[in-house]
Amino acid sequence: VLASAPELAVRFSLRALARGRIEPTALDLQGAKVVVQRDIDGNLIFGVGEGQGAAGGQLPNLMSGILGPPDPDKRFGFLRRISVSESTVTVEDARSNKSWGAEITEASVTRTRSSGLAFNVILGLVAEGKTARFTLKGSQDETTGMLPITLKFNDVDFAALGMAVPELAALRPAAVPLRGHVDFRLDQEWTIHDASFAIDGGP
Question: For the whole prediction, is pTM greater than 0.85?
Fold first, then answer.
């Protein structure tokens, strides 16, 4: 069962409908505008579009549904795919009194038949008037449950990112654009393991 709107397509679960529930199995968004506000205490508030509506409040629940183990008794427990394209995210940080954004060319999180996860993200982080391009890919190992991830970037001005994003302040001394990749694995508790990287700078 498929319902669509100019910027949203939703596929619903027939199994859930048979149980008298309306639950999505896939959400595909295009042209979305997401606002994330972080208050002084570090709490995150999500919003979609111009205001902070109910849709924004569902974003954490959506991510919990796709990232958590399948659970048909849970809200969004039938969710198998979320994809976003041609969209923007604006982060307003009250602690640093700065804002920065991301341009999402393509992003998807898919739960495979074996209940593993697969990621594919192409985005640009916008800070200090400059855009840093990143790609991120990962596919969960069915045997170990670990999620190997590769993050690639090319000619990224990390000094500009460090000025805008407090968590990247340590990168401010970077004097030249950098390119390279970072490889790591995530366990089921989202702890990083076996991180390695190859980075190069200059012309």
Answer: no
Identify the residue whose tokens are 């990621």: 119
- Is 158 in contact with 171 (CB distance < 8 Å)? yes
Q: Note the pLDDT tens digit of each residue in 60-104.
A: 566 666 766 667 777 777 888 888 898 888 888 887 787 788 898
Distance between CA 96 and CA 102 in Å, rounded? 18
Q: Which amino acid appears at position 186 of this protein? A: L
Pairing relationship of beta strands 2-5 and 178-186 according to DSSP bridges? unpaired
189: tokens are 């508790």
Closest of 160, 155, 163, 159 to residue 175, by C-alpha: 159
What are 22's strand-pairing partners? none
The two structure tokens encoding residue 8: 């949203």
88-101 as b/e: b if 16+ CB within 10 A: bbebbbeeeeebbb
Taking the chain, what is the end-to-end CA distance rounded to the nearest angstrom? 52
The DSSP code sequence of 116-166 is -EEEEEEEEEEETTEEEEEEEEEE--TTT--EEEEEEEEEE-HHHHHHH-G
